[in-house]
Amino acid sequence: MKQPYLILCALFLLGALLGSVFSVLGGDHPQLAQELKTYFQATAQGETPTASLWTLLWEAVCWPLLMLLFSFGPPGVLGVPCVFLVRGFLLSYACTSFVAMYGWVGIGWNAVFFGVPALILLPVLLCTGHWAFSNACKTCISRETTAMSLPSGAMLVCCGVLLAVFVVLQGHLLPALVPSLCRRLLSLTP
Fold first, then answer.
1. pLDDT (tens digit, 9 = 90+) per residue, 119-166?
2. What DSSP letter does each residue of 106-158 carry, written as one string?
């Protein structure tokens, strides 16, 4: 079924468009820009706060768990598309705000702080969202009383590998790279 993918991707893109518009219309945020610059300067000097394993695991699985909850019936028919709309909005709003605050240098910040997690977690969200939306539609629209379909083993393995890669990158690799990246990006900031 390709139709759920199209619906979910369209709503994600609509959310991204709305996030960009709201960010641009929101104007300047000098206090937020100063707080972020202070955080980046502290990070460049090696004072990075580290996230616990539980925090990283929650960040990795919170959206897929929400998809699992919505897969059980009628609330998922509206809930899953709304999650994609909100996720697109939040990601776009944050990225556009960085570019609005820091200009072209903000693109570098986006790549570091939002790009890596998005490249790993968005495919997991799309796979689990498609599965949850399909199950919810089957339950609600066609009124099937049979047990809901389970995700394929290949999908579970791929999603599990991506989530593990996310935890390793966010927990070990990025904290080692972020201070040097922050020094480089701060040297470009006006």
1. 899 999 999 999 999 888 888 776 655 556 777 888 889 999 999 999
2. HHHHHIIIIIHHHHHHHHHHHHHHHHHHHHHHHHHTS---SPPPPPPHHHHHH
